[in-house]
Write a structure and sequence with these properties.
mainly beta, ribosome biogenesis, seven-stranded antiparallel beta sheet, Ribosome maturation factor RimM, SH3 type barrels, 5% helix, cytoplasm, single chain, Elongation Factor Tu (Ef-tu), domain 3, chaperone
Length: 182
């Protein structure tokens, strides 16, 4: 799965427009969070690509099924809404609500070095490239990096306390209980 280009400093992708809803310019949004409604609370939004985000105003929105439907100021017909299909919604990272101790946003985990304790002592498996939502539990996609034991891509279940033993954001490190050959 290809990863999007890095975002301008301070912005985070939180959802994607998947289609239209009705004939008055409403949009279906697939949120990249379990708490879809919370996205409607952000004071400022950007739309488009990571390279050229533009500010937009959501003047109405609500939960619809597993996602959201929103209306953007100035988008008042189905044709204008259809032209936005596939565009991503972005918000400022600084506007994210604080988390409880031991909770992390996915973007905080991306890029961390993943270390495991093997027969040879600590071994670097690679870096977290991104995370996947699988339904049962989230999955860390770990790719080989300079200094890692190999160049393999590994899928590790994100199970804090079981597989994931320690996360140190300041050190850029995630420690797992995992067999390197697995």
């Amino acid at each position: 799965m290809p990863r999007p280009a890095p975002l301008p400093e301070g912005l985070l992708t939180v959802g994607r427009i998947t289609g239209c809803y009705g004939i008055k310019g409403w949009l279906r949004v697939h949120p990249y969070t379990d708490r879809a409604e919370s996205l409607l609370d952000f004071p400022a939004w950007w739309l488009g690509s990571a390279e050229e985000p533009r500010p937009v105003v959501i003047d109405a929105g609500r939960r619809q099924g597993r996602g959201l439907v929103v209306h953007l100021r100035g988008i008042d017909d189905r044709n204008a809404a259809e032209a936005l299909r596939g565009a991503e919604f972005l918000v400022r990272k600084a506007a994210l609500p604080p988390l409880e101790h031991g909770e992390y946003y996915w973007h905080q985990l991306e890029g961390l070095e993943v270390w495991c304790l093997g027969e040879e002592g600590e071994q670097l498996l690679g870096r977290v490239a991104y995370l996947l939502e699988t339904g049962a539990n989230d999955v860390l996609v770990v790719r080989g990096s300079p200094g890692s034991i190999d160049d393999r891509e590994r899928l590790l279940p994100y199970l804090p306390g079981d597989v994931v033993k320690q996360i140190d954001l300041e050190a850029g490190r995630l420690t797992v209980d995992w067999y390197p050959e697995a």
